[in-house]
Structures are given as structure tokens and as C-alpha cells.
Design a protein that fits this description.
The complex is a heterodimer of chains A (about 500) and B (about 250). By secondary structure, chain A is mainly alpha-helical. In chain A, about 65% of the residues lie in helices and about 5% in strands. In chain A, helix 3 packs across helix 8, helix 8 (about 195-225) packs antiparallel against helix 9 and helix 9 (about 230-260) runs parallel beside helix 13 (about 315-330). Mean pLDDT of chain B is about 85; it is low at about 5-20 and about 30-35. Chain B has helices at about 1-10, 15-35, 50-55, 60-70, 90-95, 105-110, 125-130, 155-160, 195-200, 205-210, 225-235; strands at about 45-50, 85-90, 110-115, 135, 140-145, 165, 190, 215-220, 235-240, 250-254. In chain B, a hairpin with a 5-residue loop joins strand 4 (about 135) and strand 5 (about 140-145). Classes of the chains: A mainly alpha (about 500), B alpha+beta (about 250). Bound molecules: iron/sulfur cluster (2 copies).
Chain lengths: ~500, ~250
């Protein structure tokens, strides 16, 4: 399986080389930091967490993308997502790798990190965060890898794998909740000390993670010959839209509470991020443009996503997702961490801005994450495409056989409603009838409507539900009506199962 | 132990090495022999009489901060953002934000308030430490283990008073004159005031208390006989951010 990672064209290798350079720069900067201490960062006695912990926090959110596609695919057996689950899971695993690296580069004594395991203190939220993140990482990696291995061998899922998948779902929620508690549980930091922290985190996570997933999937669709299926992408777009609106709503609720009740403890911090504060004749407002940019971008993206026409157009969807991603990165990254420290606990206002080595280290960590994701996605795509080639061959053979059968029984295909024995000439009619008369949802009308005549293959265009008796017709239709290349028309033209 | 070993290398003298180790062994033995203070019974606390303290001339006030810096090997860094401090002066308005109003008498508004770790009875900082490198001892002192600290700075995020400092860089080259009877720290660990545990063990008062000319009072909050409890009973005292429920054991008289 891993051999797919080392088989690649010019573009693949130049991309890898580019990432390698970024990682090397980060590595050199880290060496510099390791030698000189964290003084090389912009952090200070007053602002003791910065870019690293900000990115860590944000990336915990991105790790959600995995569960967002795993959940519908496995829980509801939503087939359209099956093509992208592995990619989602690998994205999640890569995000968790970045999280762990960001924590490591932030430690003053990384050589002692094992103390977390050797001398754990059960009251510390950080301990639990460490545990849930590590387990989530393993879960994603094991699940995605096994799924791929099975795909390669054309095997179904075993029970233990299914159990792991079901554990992974609540686990993804737990990593956000625990990370939010990390901040929300601190009595001394009013900026973080709110019960809304965890829900806000989840909403932000379910917007940013799937956004990144959409961007990656659209990129994969464009630059490789693997098509994840636009339908799946569209569905994830819906999730982003909902989550982004919820996220904005919660920010609004937070702002209302803070500014209307105007408790000085909370007010100070929010005044700092939105308007800046005056202290000793100085105005401190470094974060003001940052936060407003994030807010305005967030609102703009939410409006774009709410309009279905915009959301369903790949080009605009990509833009909207990019904006969501940037907006949340600004807001749930250093925008969430740094203002918690300003003004400081005993008066002086000391602002924060990352230094160059610090930024290079952060970029390097992103480079590692993206590299891991590229390699894993490459393997996933390789395995999936390979598997489909085999499947296609099988399908083609079947078609030949069926064509012969079709010639014999050309007509006489009928659908019968099992509940009242009414007979219809096509499935849709029957389904409509089932919905009207027996209140059976169209989606599950195959429960009620059975084909009476010998099976005949039909192809349905998934985009407009038109039905065709052969694949070519459907492909032609897809090309004409929906501008989908014939080569990838198997994405839209699904075989209607009897 | 590493710190001591390093120190030996610095001195580079085998003779010094032998005498130092010997003196240390002596110290350890002495600690065992001395009638130990029952850690479960006492509860150390401190009162700072701000009026009295502010009546001291500036150089004597400065001495209080400096003595702590000197005996505890606290470095002075050129860059303010790297500061490491155990006790330092602050103003009234920011130390007691909820006690402040615009009509405060001038002499109160302009008070210099020494701030240090409050050795909270419910310390939020120890609760969050993932490795147990900081913890509350039986006698109420919030202690630090510099050999266990991983430098995650979660405790700094948790302390509502900003009383912890991180060694952003190697402190040793920035210590004016190393006090060889006290340890130095490495880069990457957190430190703060310890109520001079090393002196308490020897039956002495904390260094700042000793140099404060009576404006700092230190003692056992559990004993009704001690000076500190008497002073607290007789005077109105305030504490920093008492509404957070951390129960600071550092009281201020105004
Ligand atoms: S003042 Fe801060 S460092 Fe000291 S015990 Fe309280 S919370 Fe901990
Ligand atoms: S910096 Fe050290 S003392 Fe503070 S929480 Fe982390 S490990 Fe504990």
C-alpha cells in the first residue's frame, strides 16, 4: 500500500520538495529556539502562550473534519461519503500530528515530556487533553489504514473495525470539549472562563475542519484523476454552512452578554480585541484589525454559504471555505489565546506578536502536517483508484450478460407496491404513490416498491433524478445538462438498484 | 542535582567539590535532626502593612525586593519580556481593581504594593499542572519542583495574579552573583516565590520579612497566639481578587 506514496509525477515530487524546504526551515528555527530558549519567540511574562498554542487550539478543531464525514457515512450508511471517509480520517490524523507538535515546540523542557506519563496529575485538564488527542490520532490512523487495506483486498469491514469507528465518533467530540475545558476552566482568565467555550469550539471546529476537507477534496479533484464525487463535497458544504452560522451566533451571544452586562472583568478583554484599550496614555490595539478582519470574513463567508446557488458552485464553495478557514484560524487561533492575557493580571498591558523564528517553526509544523496528509492521501487515492479499476472490469462483464437478457425481455417491466398491490410502470411513480398513500419516505421506498418483471438495469442522474436505460445516455445527458465530463460521469450516473 | 553538579563544573575545583558535598550532607543531616515543624499543623501566611512599608525610604523598600533577588539567584535580563520575578512593586489601582474608585485618598492611591505569590489556599495553578511539578504542601506553601516541570506554562495561564515567571532563556549568565547555597534554575521551567521554605526549615523568617523593618509580618495562621493572627483580628485587611475563591494567604493592611 505504502508504495503509492513513492510513485508520483513531477508535480507530486516538486510539492514534496517544497514542503521539505519549509520543514527544514522550521527545523533550523527550532534548533535555534532549543539552544536559546523560548526567548526567541514573542511570548513574555505577561503573554505566556502565543502562536503555538493558538495553532494547537485551532488544529484540534480541524481534526473534526474526520468525524464529520465518518459520521454520516457509517452511522446512516450514506454511500456518497464512503469515497471520502479515508481522506477525512487522514486529514484528521495529520491535524492531530500538528497539534502534538505544536505542544512539543511550546514546551520549555521538551526533554521531560515523559513526565506527563510518569507523574500524571489527575486534576489537570492538560493531561486528559494529551490522552484524548493521542487516542484520537491512533484511532484515525488505524481505521483509515485498515479500511484501505480492506479496499485493496476487496474485503468487507470486520466487527472490531466497526467498533473502532463507532468509538471514534464521540471521541472526536471529546477532543474539542476537553481542549475547550483547558481554557474554560481557568477562574483567573475571564476571557476564557465561559460555559460557551466548549459549544463555541465545536461549532468553529465543524466549520473549519470540513472547510479544509472541502478545499483538499476540490484540489484532489482538480489535480489528480480521483474524483471524490461532487455530491459528497456539496453535503460537507451544507455542514460548513450550518456550523459557521452557529459559530457566529455563539460569538454574538458572547458579545451581547459581555457588552450589555458590562462586567469589567470580562469587558476589558473584549474591549481590547474590538476597540483597543488605553493605559498610561498609550492605546493598545494590535489585535483590533485582526479581530475585525476575522469577524467580517466570517460573516461574509456565512452569507455566501447560506445561499444555495453559491454553495453549490464548486468555485464559490472553494472561496467560501477558504474564507471560513482563514476567519476561524484568526479567531480560534491566536485570537482566542492571546487576548486572554491582555491586560495582564496585575496591570501592565503588554502586547504580543510572533517573531520570525516563531513563525518559521509554526510554518514548519504546518509543513509536516501537510506532508503527512499528502502522503496519506496519495496512498488513499492510489488504493481507491486501483480498487475501482477492478470493480469496473467486473461491472463491464456483468453488463454484457445483462444486455443479452435485456434483448430477450424488452418490455413488461413493472413495479408493484407491496402494501396495496397497485402496479406502476416506473419506480418513481410507485415511490410517489408510496409516499402519498403509505407515508413511506421516498428514500426508503425500495422497501415498498418491488420490481415485478425481471431486473432491468437503469441509470439515474443523481443531479436531476432523470432515469435512463443505459449508461451512455445518462452520460450524454450529464455532459449536456450538468457539464460533467464523460470520463467522470460514473459520479453522477448511478445504477438504480432493483 | 544537575544544578549542583553543573555548579561544581563551573568552579572546576575538586577541593571545592568535596567541601561542598560535605557541607550539603551536613545540611541534610541537620534537617533530619532538627525538630521538624509539623507541616500538617501550621499554615503559613503573610501580612503586608502597606502604610508602614510606604513610610520606608525608597532604598530600603528596594532592598526588600533586592534581597529576594540576590539570595534566590534570580536573574536580571536585558529584555523586559523575559523578566523573572518573585516579588515586585505594583500600584494600588491594578493590584486591587475592585477596591479602587476615583475618590480614593491620595496616600492610598499612590501606595506602592509589593506583590508576590499569594500561596492560595485553593491554588488554581497547582490544579492544572499536568505533572505535579507545583503543589500545595501541608503547611499551605505552594511549592515548585524545578526538576519535574516541563515548562508548559499552564500554571501561568491559571494563576489569576500573574505571580509566576518562566525562564525564557538560560538564567545563569544573568545572575549578578551566584549564591552558592541556593539552587539556580535552567531555561524552560517556571518559578515563583516559595515563602523562603529553605529559611523556614532553619527556623528563620522569609528574607523579605526580615528586611522589611516590621512592615511584613509572617507566621502561622492556624495558631491563635501568633502575631499574624492577632494583627489580622485587630485590623481590617484586604486580599487580591478575593471573589475568585482562591483564598490568598497574603493579606494587606491599608
Ligand atoms: S498566587 Fe498564583 S502562583 Fe501563587 S498560589 Fe495563587 S495561583 Fe498559585
Ligand atoms: S510549567 Fe511546570 S509547574 Fe507549570 S504547569 Fe507546566 S509543568 Fe507544571
Amino acid at each position: 500500500m505504502i508504495e503509492y506514496a513513492i510513485r508520483g509525477g513531477k508535480y507530486y515530487w516538486s510539492w514534496i520538495a517544497f514542503l521539505a524546504i519549509i520543514i527544514a526551515l522550521g527545523g533550523i528555527s527550532y534548533y535555534y529556539q532549543y539552544q536559546n530558549g523560548l526567548t526567541v519567540t514573542g511570548m513574555s511574562k505577561e503573554v505566556s502562550w502565543g502562536l503555538y498554542i493558538g495553532n494547537f487550539t485551532f488544529l484540534v478543531g480541524v481534526a473534526a473534519s474526520a468525524v464529520m464525514v465518518v459520521l454520516p457515512a457509517y452511522l446512516y450508511n450514506y454511500k456518497k461519503f464512503k469515497r471520502v471517509t479515508t481522506i477525512g480520517e487522514f486529514l484528521g490524523a495529520s491535524a492531530v500530528i500538528m497539534c502534538i507538535l505544536f505542544i512539543l515546540v511550546d514546551l520549555g523542557r521538551p526533554d521531560r515530556v515523559l513526565n506527563l506519563v510518569l507523574n500524571p496529575r489527575p486534576t489537570s485538564v492538560m493531561l486528559y487533553d494529551f490522552i484524548v488527542l493521542s487516542v484520537y490520532f491512533l484511532l484515525n490512523l488505524v481505521i483509515a489504514w485498515t479500511v484501505l487495506a480492506y479496499k485493496e483486498k476487496n474485503k468487507g469491514y470486520t466487527t472490531w473495525l466497526k467498533i473502532l469507528i463507532f468509538i471514534a465518533i464521540p471521541w472526536a467530540i471529546s477532543i474539542h470539549t476537553v481542549t475547550a475545558f483547558l481554557y474554560g476552566g481557568l477562574v483567573g482568565r475571564p476571557f476564557w472562563n465561559t460555559a460557551l467555550m466548549a459549544p463555541r469550539f465545536l461549532a468553529g471546529a465543524f466549520a473549519s475542519g470540513p472547510s479544509l476537507l472541502i478545499i483538499s477534496l476540490l484540489a484532489i479533484r482538480r489535480y489528480t484523476n480521483f474524483d471524490p464525487g461532487y455530491d459528497a463535497i456539496k453535503k460537507i458544504g451544507d455542514i460548513v454552512a450550518f456550523a459557521m452560522v452557529t459559530n457566529l451566533f455563539m460569538i454574538g451571544a458572547e458579545l451581547f452578554t459581555v457588552f450589555y452586562s458590562a462586567h469589567p472583568h470580562h469587558l476589558e478583554y473584549f474591549t481590547y480585541i474590538l476597540f483597543g484599550i488605553k493605559e498610561g496614555g498609550w492605546v493598545y490595539a494590535r489585535f483590533v484589525p485582526w479581530m475585525w478582519t476575522s469577524l467580517i470574513l466570517g460573516i461574509a463567508a456565512a452569507i455566501m454559504l447560506i445561499v444555495p446557488k453559491v454553495r453549490n458552485e464548486p468555485k464559490y464553495l472553494a472561496i467560501a471555505c477558504g474564507i471560513v478557514f482563514i476567519s476561524i484560524w484568526m479567531e480560534k487561533g491566536i485570537g482566542l489565546i492571546v487576548p486572554g492575557y491582555i491586560p495582564s493580571q496585575w496591570g501592565p498591558v503588554v502586547e504580543y506578536w510572533p517573531t520570525i523564528p516563531e513563525s518559521l517553526i509554526a510554518l514548519g509544523v504546518w509543513g509536516v502536517g501537510i506532508l503527512v496528509f499528502t502522503v496519506l492521501a496519495k496512498v488513499a487515492i492510489g488504493v481507491t483508484l486501483e480498487g475501482e479499476k477492478i470493480e469496473e472490469e467486473v461491472v463491464e462483464e456483468e453488463e454484457v450478460v445483462e444486455e443479452v437478457v435485456e434483448e430477450v425481455v424488452e418490455e413488461g417491466k413493472e413495479y408493484r407496491c407491496e402494501l396495496c398491490d397497485a402496479v406502476f410502470t416506473n419506480l418513481d411513480e410507485c415511490c410517489e404513490h408510496a409516499e402519498k398513500e403509505h407515508k413511506i419516505a421516498k428514500a426508503s421506498c425500495d422497501m415498498a416498491c418491488v420490481e415485478v418483471a425481471p431486473a432491468e438495469k437503469q441509470y439515474k442522474c443523481e443531479l436531476c433524478d432523470a432515469v435512463f436505460t443505459n449508461l451512455d445516455e445518462c452520460c450524454e445527458h450529464a455532459e449536456k445538462e450538468h457539464k460533467i465530463a464523460k470520463a467522470s460521469c460514473d459520479m453522477v450516473c448511478a445504477e438504480v438498484e432493483e | 542535582m544537575i544544578t549542583r553538579r553543573r555548579f561544581l563544573i563551573v568552579t572546576g575545583s575538586a577541593f571545592a567539590a568535596i567541601t561542598l558535598t560535605a557541607s550539603q550532607i551536613e545540611k541534610v543531616l541537620a534537617a533530619f535532626a532538627a525538630p521538624a515543624i509539623d507541616q500538617q499543623k501550621v499554615k503559613w501566611g503573610m501580612v503586608i502593612d502597606l502604610k508602614k512599608f510606604n513610610e520606608l525610604p525608597p532604598n530600603k523598600r528596594k532592598r526588600v525586593y533586592d534581597v529576594c533577588r540576590d539570595i534566590h539567584n534570580i536573574p536580571v535580563f536585558p529584555n523586559a519580556k523575559d523578566r523573572v520575578e518573585w516579588i515586585w512593586p505594583a500600584d494600588f489601582e491594578h493590584t486591587f481593581p475592585s477596591q479602587f474608585n476615583q475618590f480614593l485618598p491620595e496616600e492610598i492611591e499612590s501606595l506602592e504594593v509589593p506583590i508576590l505569590c499569594n500561596h492560595c489556599e485553593n491554588p488554581p495553578c497547582t490544579k492544572v499542572c499536568p505533572t505535579g511539578a507545583t503543589w500545595k504542601r501541608g503547611d499551605g506553601i505552594v511549592a515548585m519542583d524545578y526538576h519535574r516541570c516541563i515548562g508548559c506554562r499552564y500554571c501561568m495561564a491559571a494563576c489569576p495574579y500573574g505571580m509566576r515567571s518562566f525562564n525564557w532563556r538560560d538564567p545563569r549568565p544573568f545572575i549578578k552573583k551566584i549564591n552558592t547555597s541556593y539552587h539556580t534554575r535552567t531555561k524552560g521551567v517556571v518559578e515563583k516565590c516559595t515563602f523562603c521554605v529553605e529559611r523556614l526549615e532553619k527556623g528563620m523568617q522569609p528574607a523579605c520579612v526580615e528586611t522589611s523593618e516590621g512592615s511584613f509580618i509572617f507566621g502561622d495562621l492556624n495558631s491563635l497566639e501568633s502575631e499574624i493572627t492577632k494583627v489580622l483580628k485587630e485590623h481590617y485587611s484586604i486580599r487580591r481578587k478575593p471573589d475568585l475563591g482562591t483564598e490568598p494567604k497574603l493579606y494587606y493592611l491599608i
